[in-house]
Amino acid sequence: MALQGYKLDALRARWRARWHAWLGLEVGAGAQIHPGVLLRHGPGSALGARSVLYRDSRLLATAGGGFRIGRDSHIAPGGHLLIGAQLLLIGDDVAIGPGLMLFCESNAPAAQGLHRQQYRRADVRIGSNVFIGARVTVLPGSIIDDGVVVAAHALVDGHLTGGWVYGGCPAKPLRRLDGDKA
Fold it and tell me: Which enzyme type, at the first EC level (predicted)?
């Protein structure tokens, strides 16, 4: 019985991907958008082949903004990606854990006080062969190079270079992927 439900979910996810393709999203072969995903995309947005957007994720772009997600990548349930009028680039073979908070635009502290409307807006780039753990927060302008692991609950603000495991708030290198400590 459970297997039949899984097949039905996968079928619905493929149909939702086709629906978004009809609405202008470039959708690769075998890509899936599960029920419960809130998706607002601008022109030029793309979901790569065999990539999956799982339940309860939100990708929100406004006029002029968009995203490009490479092949064989996925965003686990509960991700909130506020793209706005910026660009979000995600490479191939990227696994993003549940509860991701990714901001291409966000409030920023101001010298006049926090009650003032100040915003930080910048594109976010995530390379290929990247693993991002559960409940990670990624701030505007962040760049995550190819071959990076980001530990759960980390705060990414800046440039993470390839070949490292990062963790903490803000994210700092913990050890090289080949095993040496920082």
Answer: transferase
pLDDT under 50: residue ranges of the chain: 1
Q: CA–CA distance from 53 to each of 10, 15, 76, 150 (Å)?
A: 11, 13, 7, 19
Neighbours of 76 (CB within 10 A): 20
Q: Would you state the structure tokens that stand for residue 131, as one six-digit string?
A: 């693993």
Question: Of 125, 181, 135, nearest to 158 (Cα)?
Answer: 125
Model-wide pTM > 0.90 = no
Place of tokens 């002029």: 64
Give the span between the Cα atoms of 53 and 139, in whole angstroms. Answer: 20
State the pLDDT at residue 180. 67
Buried b / exposed e over 158-175, threshold 16 CB at 10 Å, is eebeeebbbbeeebebee
Q: Is 6 exposed, middle or buried (0-12, 13-18, 19+ CB in 10 A)?
A: exposed
